[in-house]
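Deliverable D5.2: sample structural annotation.
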Amino acid sequence: QKKRRAATARRQHLKSAMLQLAATEIEKEAAAKEVEKQNYLAEHCPPLSLPGSMQELQELCKKLHAKIEAVDEERYDTEVKLQKTTKELEDLNQKLFDLRGKFKRPPLRRVRMSADAMLRALLGSKHKVCMDLRANLKQVKKEDTEKEKDLRDVGDWRKNIEEKSGMEGRKKMFEAGE
């Protein structure tokens, strides 16, 4: 057990020493980043001195606008390069999946679409025909049949049964059948 205690104590001592070294390294990196930031700002952003006359202010504004345009062009170029590289990465990843033969199935969502919306999605601006299926249906007028009239005239079923009960009701049904 003494060996175990010594081993665990040694491990804890090594762990604390490594943590102290890591903490000092993190502090050094933070200080280096701060110095690098200060140097960059000093190089690229000189201190601003505002001139007194109107013409000198206009010249300063023109220079600042020119710098802003240059930075915007550079930002746009880097964005385009980034988009291009991400597209290339996606294509290469797709080729990798194709070569491996394993396809990752995307999660599918159920989408309710009408026929018009589906045709619009498939055909785009070419779709002009309206697929309203209910509009093309014929309207059929319901004809009143004799049975339906009889059923409506009967009314309450209890009365009907009372009338047809017993011998008189059977006699009426027999006479009606003739």
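Annotation notes: The chain has a mean pLDDT of 79. The two ends are 115 Å apart (CA to CA).
The annotation will be released with the project's public dataset once the embargo ends.
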